[in-house]
Amino acid sequence: MNFNKLKFGDTIGIIGGGQLGKMMAQSAQKMGFKVICLDPNPDSPCKPVAHEFITAAYDDEKALHELGEKSDVITYEFENISAEQLNRLTQQFNIPQGYQAIQLLQDRLTEKQTLEQAGSKIVPFLSIKSEKDLNDAIHTLGYPFIVKTRFGGYDGKGQVLVKDETALQEARALITNQECVAEQYLDISLEVSLTVTIGNHKQITYFPLQENEHRNQILFKTIVPARTDKEQEARNEVNKIIDQVHFVGTFTVEFFIDKSNHLYVNEIAPRPHNSGHYSIEACDYSQFDTHILAVTGQKLPEQIEILKPAVMMNLLGRDLDLLEEQFSSHPEWHVHIYGKSERKPDRKMGHMTILTNDLNETEKDMLKQFEGRE
Ligand code: ADP
Ligand code: MG
């Protein structure tokens, strides 16, 4: 496939104005592109950095059309947009990412089926539409298992961990409202992720393997390079997946490693990802830079160089409460604050990246900083 090649001064339309949209816009602007962003929230993080902003719902056909008319290429910062609408837009406007990745990956069930087709190793799962399916899960998967909504979940939202019978009530409540999947709960020794960008003529660039720790199912920290020997295996998994799904731009595959050192694909985010934020300071190109290069039809760097090992810590509302006063005395904390209007304990308000020659020592220091955290 050959994409339209954008020139300096051309305009990139971004659907979604959260922190990912903001950081995409910042990369686009340093390369000389204009940005127009569409988001229902007029206080979106991306608004102050976009040249133009359309306040409209993600499914507002007229507004999406306006975005298309004003843009030389359209991209998106999150997966919960309508695949059908995106498909319609692709008939009229330049959208090299297409709609297939969104369609397959915004639904956990079709995502898992796609991964099975690709031959990826995944955790055993079942589709859950009824009480009977839930009972089947108890027998087929056994306790503990996790019930997840098929659509719209993020940061562990829409998930219930069923350890034993007592948690079944909560799972029942979840499945009465929405179709779900249930998956076996894995005894994880490490979580890792691989961020990849695909450009024109299927050029592919890999970021270094990322080691992730989640707390309450929200990403807490990322360490790069990951302290495991699974990088090549993770790349092999990604290569299988890209044979099944049309990807353009930056996306991330999340993996689990179990106690026997087996690698499982967890899920795929068809967009820049929280675990790739370290790349802004720690690599010669960030995940946002390569995304913009890809969707504007430029050549990608053959390889991403890691300039220094890094620890990235997310800053939720609770973390800002804890650390805010200390930022001024820590210039080594590369702090990014997204500019969200309301601070909530579990809301991602920003992140910070620390470059280091001694990962283990820096990790220890950072964990101490976050010690008082609930
Ligand atoms: P989200 O879309 O919210 O990121 P995930 O499926 O990635 O949803 O779940 C969030 C986190 O919850 C994972 O990163 C992992 O820490 C934990 N988790 C999810 N599924 C499982 C599982 N099957 N076994 C063990 N832990 C899990
Ligand atoms: Mg996840």
TrEMBL record:
Keyword ATP-binding in annotation: yes
Recorded metabolic or biological pathway in which this protein acts: Purine metabolism; IMP biosynthesis via de novo pathway; 5-amino-1-(5-phospho-D-ribosyl)imidazole-4-carboxylate from 5-amino-1-(5-phospho-D-ribosyl)imidazole (N5-CAIR route): step 1/2
Catalysed reactions listed for this entry: 5-amino-1-(5-phospho-beta-D-ribosyl)imidazole + hydrogencarbonate + ATP = 5-carboxyamino-1-(5-phospho-D-ribosyl)imidazole + ADP + phosphate + 2 H(+)
Residue ranges occupied by any ATP-grasp domain in the UniProt entry: 112-296
Gene3D superfamilies: 3.40.50.20, ATP-grasp fold, A domain, ATP-grasp fold, B domain
InterPro entries, A to Z: ATP-grasp (IPR011761), ATP-grasp_carboxylate-amine (IPR003135), ATP_grasp_subdomain_1 (IPR013815), PreATP-grasp_dom_sf (IPR016185), PurK (IPR005875), PurK_C (IPR040686), PurT/PurK_preATP-grasp (IPR054350), Rudment_hybrid_motif (IPR011054)
Keyword Iron-sulfur carried by entry: no
Residues bound to ATP: 108, 148, 153-159, 183-186, 191, 214, 266-267
The entry's keywords: ATP-binding, Ligase, Nucleotide-binding, Purine biosynthesis
EC number in record: 6.3.4.18
PROSITE patterns: ATP_GRASP (PS50975)
A molecular-function term among this protein's GO annotations: 5-(carboxyamino)imidazole ribonucleotide synthase activity
Role summary: Catalyzes the ATP-dependent conversion of 5-aminoimidazole ribonucleotide (AIR) and HCO(3)- to N5-carboxyaminoimidazole ribonucleotide (N5-CAIR).
Annotated HAMAP family: PurK
Family membership noted in the UniProt record: Belongs to the PurK/PurT family.
Subunit organization: Homodimer.
NCBIfam families: PRK06019.1-1, PRK06019.1-5, purK
Descriptive protein name: N5-carboxyaminoimidazole ribonucleotide synthase
Protein species of origin: Staphylococcus borealis
Source lineage: Bacteria, Bacillati, Bacillota, Bacilli, Bacillales
